[in-house]
Amino acid sequence: MANIGDFSKESLLNQAQNVWSMLDEMAESSPEKYKEFIDKQMKEAKEYMKPPEPNMCVQSSLQAPKQWKLYINFCSWQRVPEPKTTDESIPVIGTDLQKEKDGSDTVIITSVAFNPKIIEECGKQNTTERDLLIKLAIKYVENQHNVQVSSNYQILGGNVVFKGNMEKFIQAFNKKTEKSDKEFDENMSELQKNFAPLPSDAKDTILNKFANIAVSEDTGKCDPVTKSQNSFDFKMPSSDSGKKKKGLIEEISTSTVKTACPKYTLECVKGYNNIEEIKVKVILDGVSSVKECCLDISKDDMKLEVDDRYSLHINFPHHVVDDEASAKFSKKTSVLTITVPIVK
Q1: What are phi and psi of 62, to 5 degrees?
Q2: What is the sign, positive or negative, of the torsion defined by CA atoms of 4, 200, 284, 194?
């Protein structure tokens, strides 16, 4: 069975450290490349979280322990890794054998998923590679479920690429990833406590949250990249939407010394599409990097801490949509600009 991914705490901590360092340097040196990188990560994350996509359906039969007509759905799925070398075995993920009605007949249906590159290389037009893939899948079904499958098979013609109930099909594959998804979620929670906390109401992806920050090295005119522009549809459900968001810009500080209140301005403005927004500009003299800042925003206030130098707490004059807050930092002027929509 394929390995869904390495979600160990140590692995995530190392990845987070590397990502923080790389993004901070990229945001300061090249805002354009930074945005391109974030957009690329969002696209890849969206593709990765898609459900398996049916590609073709093969009809065969179970010979033992009992004879049944058998359908095997072949699918492409980004969550199945591709072989690292040509000598390595082809990873596959399969579902359980399910009895379902096919007209007046009762049949057995199962599904197997391969990396999209494997499906593409062994497509319907490539007869030799396709037959090898089908034989591999049959052998997998036999070994996985302790059954005997006939070596005779046929690919369903026309536009028939799938047999069965699509909802059950998706649920079956989701069940296969429950363990790794749970491990990932638990280690992400641990990562929040020990390294760089993410918003408690959305664990989509580390880079999804980084997309809320845009940095201008020279002019400060780089448009903020907001969550609404770059977020993808698959999200963990929120357990408490009233909790304060953390992590728009954050680095943990361990020392406790007296800090100064920085100069700032707050105004209500009309932004894109005439949406009313609160815009806060904070002057942070001596600050050269977003890595020095820790910003928390909730529906009614914001708090900013900057590496033992500055501390700022502002109560907003209106309730805001904290999930859509964005921030940009100008290295040239040392001004942090926070923009957040007002609740209608």
Answers
A1: -80, 135
A2: negative
Q: Are strands 68-76 and 105-114 parallel, antiparallel or unpaired?
A: parallel
- Span of 62-66, 200-204, 323-327 with lowest mean pLDDT: 200-204
User: Which two structure tokens, joined as six digits, stand for 271?
Assistant: 């932004």
- Is the CB of residue 302 less than 8 Å from the CB of residue 189? no
| Measured distance CA(300)–CA(47) in Å, rounded | 35
Q: How many residues does the chain have?
A: 344
Beta bridge partners of 34: none
DSSP 139-185: HHHHHHHT-EE-S--EE--TT----S-HHHHHHHHHHHTHHHHHHHH
Rounded Cα–Cα distance for residues 265 and 262 (Å): 10
Cα separation, 171 vs 223, whole angstroms? 40
pTM of the full structure: 0.47
Q: What is the pLDDT of residues 218-256, one digit of tens each?
A: 333 333 333 333 222 222 233 344 444 443 443 333 344
Distances (CA, A) of 76 to 51, 56, 131, 176: 9, 10, 16, 15
According to the model, what pLDDT value does residue 199 have?
44
CA–CA dist 162, 165 (Å, integer): 9
Q: How buried is 254 (Cβ within 10 angstroms: 0-12 exposed, 13-18 middle, 19+ buried)? A: exposed
Question: With 60 as the cut, is the pLDDT of residue 54 above it?
Answer: yes
